[in-house]
Amino acid sequence: MKDLIQKVINDSISVKQSILQDEQLLATVERIVDICTESLRARGKILFAGNGGSAADAQHLAAELSGRFYIDREPLFAEALHVNTSYVTAVANDYAYDEIYARLVRAMGQPGDVLFAISTSGNSSNIIKAVEAARKIGFTVVAMTGADGGKLLPLADHLINIPSKTTPRIQEGHMLLGHLICELIEEKMFGEAASAV
Ligand SMILES: O=C(CO)[C@@H](O)[C@H](O)[C@H](O)[C@H](O)COP(=O)(O)O
Ligand SMILES: [Zn+2]
């Protein structure tokens, strides 16, 4: 048991070390922060979509923006697409599970909005369909993936691909960088030097 505990913690640390050393990935994080800030300043929306643990991550990250992260400040428009269970169950039942996010993207989305498509495999079809709908509308699409990026890879404007093939380790990487993105957006928009950036 102790061996497994140490292995899992070590694996998680290794993934995070790889992220830290990946300058291209860290530059992508900066670019995503700039794009989200620009969108929010223009009254755009930041939408998040994921399944399972990634749905939890989606609503967690949305709440950091619509609620607050560190700073007492105005709310920002951010939401996770699965949170209305009446909507999700009706659309999954009446149309298809694949349609749940794409349909809401079409209902809510406007050019300049940002969609975070969170899928550890990059292959969940409801996420792919949401991305296709978002691209048609003129969103910026940020894909948060792992492994080889899957089908999301060629569809994303910006890719956060966590260097791991293990779903929970990938999710931990998504949350690390997702938290970082929320912190940096808040700092850029509301921090002490906000008027200068
Ligand atoms: O949280 C976990 C595993 O850590 C699971 O609930 C996991 O999110 C689900 O199996 C998802 O359906 C996986 O989908 P995806 O990440 O490949 O898009
Ligand atoms: Zn999980």
From TrEMBL:
Zn(2+) binds at H60, E64, Q171, H179. One of its GO terms (molecular function) is zinc ion binding. It comes from the Bacteria. It is found in: Cytoplasm. Substrate binds at N51, G52, G53, E64, N93, D94, S119, T120, S121, S124, Q171. PROSITE patterns: SIS. Transmembrane segments: none annotated. InterPro entries: GmhA/DiaA, Phosphoheptose_Isoase, SIS_dom, SIS_dom_sf, SIS_GmhA/DiaA_subfam. Pfam families: SIS_2 (PF13580). Keywords: Carbohydrate metabolism, Cytoplasm, Isomerase, Metal-binding, Zinc. Its EC number is 5.3.1.28. Residues 36-195 form the SIS domain. One of its GO terms (cellular component) is cytoplasm. It catalyses: 2 D-sedoheptulose 7-phosphate = D-glycero-alpha-D-manno-heptose 7-phosphate + D-glycero-beta-D-manno-heptose 7-phosphate. Pathway: Carbohydrate biosynthesis; D-glycero-D-manno-heptose 7-phosphate biosynthesis; D-glycero-alpha-D-manno-heptose 7-phosphate and D-glycero-beta-D-manno-heptose 7-phosphate from sedoheptulose 7-phosphate: step 1/1. One of its GO terms (biological process) is carbohydrate metabolic process. Binds 1 zinc ion per subunit. The keyword Zinc applies. Its main location: cytoplasm. Catalyzes the isomerization of sedoheptulose 7-phosphate in D-glycero-D-manno-heptose 7-phosphate. The reaction produces a racemic mixture of D-glycero-alpha-D-manno-heptose 7-phosphate and D-glycero-beta-D-manno-heptose 7-phosphate. Belongs to the SIS family. GmhA subfamily. This is Phosphoheptose isomerase. It comes from Flavilitoribacter nigricans (strain ATCC 23147 / DSM 23189 / NBRC 102662 / NCIMB 1420 / SS-2).
